[in-house]
Design brief:
Layout: E1 7-15, E2 19-22, H1 23-27, H2 34-41, E3 45-48, H3 55-69, E4 79-83, H4 94-102, E5 108-112, H5 118-131, E6 138-145, H6 155-158, E7 163-172, E8 178-186, E9 194-195, H7 207-211, E10 218-219, H8 221-242, E11 252-255, H9 260-270, H10 281-284, H11 291-301, E12 310-317, E13 321-328
Parallel strand pairs: 4-5, 4-6, 11-12
Antiparallel strand pairs: 1-7, 2-3, 6-7, 8-13, 9-10, 12-13
Helix pairs in contact: 3-4, 8-9
Bound molecules: oxa(dethia)-CoA.
The site of oxa(dethia)-CoA has 20 residues, from helix 2, helix 6 and helix 8.
Length: 331
Amino acid sequence: MSHRIAAKITGVAGYLPPRIMTNADLEKIVDTNDEWIRTRTGIRERHVVDKGMASSHMATEAARQVLANTNTDPAEIDMIIVASVTPDMLFPATACLVQDHIGAKRAWGFDLSAACSGFAYALTVGAQFVGSGAHKKVLAIGSDAMTSILNYEDRATCVLFGDGAGAVLLEPAADGEGILDFEHDVDGSGGRYLHMPGGGSLHPPTHETVDKKMHYVHQEGSAVFKYAVRRMAELAAHVVERNGLKSEDIALVVPHQANLRIIRAMQERLGLPDERVMVNIDRYGNTTGGTIPLGLRDAVEQQKLKKGDLVLLMAVGAGYTTGSVLLRWAY
Ligand code: UT7
């Protein structure tokens, strides 16, 4: 059974820090090369924050832009959800910092941790409050400064990620528009394959945790790769089928951008042509919470979306978490 929510996206915006790190720049830091990175991941360059810029700052820029795009007064915002695995600090929540920065005086909010599926989770959770009638305007934001947790001595992870944020405004929808379905799941047995072991209550920061490089991303790439290829394709096909649709009914798939090969495997399973699958991993790398809203932003800017189009958002990430949202584009 599909899950309809009477909520729609009425605006989208993104923010990427101005500094760009190319594959050639990485060649100077770690034993890697442009050809390996391009052919194994699809990435050419990524944006990176300078010292002093954190997830809240990128989230704030994206939020301000979406408010401007939709002519929304910050005081009208009811709720702010920030999906991030790189919050400025463990607490207060990044959502509280954003609430203050943008002057959303009436809004409550919180952070949500679901790694690469984080934005899809935030969208579904935020939409519930709109669909229930409790709220009229909710900001769902994905923001990650992944470079703050990368080990630039580990070539298998440091080349994959970039920094960035995206935000959408959610508002009440008429029947048949907005979010038509969502599907999320967790397979916690996959937690050990992609994690940051240090800094939480299990391994609080000590000299030892720093020496052992526990405050960085640790990943068993091939295990995550296999899981992501299988689940992205399975879940996309499942959501399409259970809504009585065919792949060709989907105007655009906006997938999480972790590896171009994962995206192409899903695309092949659905039998979709390149122009119906949003790809920007070449320029941004994997921005974790930022990938899907940045994909939506680029799709709008490139006029790939028009009112009434069916859009499928897809993500798989650490946890393992998966997220899929089917929506009818509303503007
Ligand atoms: O968004 C969160 C979810 N994350 C993901 O979805 C990531 C999933 N995993 C992946 O995308 C891929 O597994 C990677 C891109 C991380 C790795 O690609 P792979 O095809 O699975 O390569 P591999 O890990 O099997 O490594 C193949 C070789 C190894 O060398 P040997 O042992 O064959 O001599 C690695 O040491 O490639 C080597 N290698 C590199 N070489 C140059 C690994 N990283 C690099 C590098 N530059 N940056």
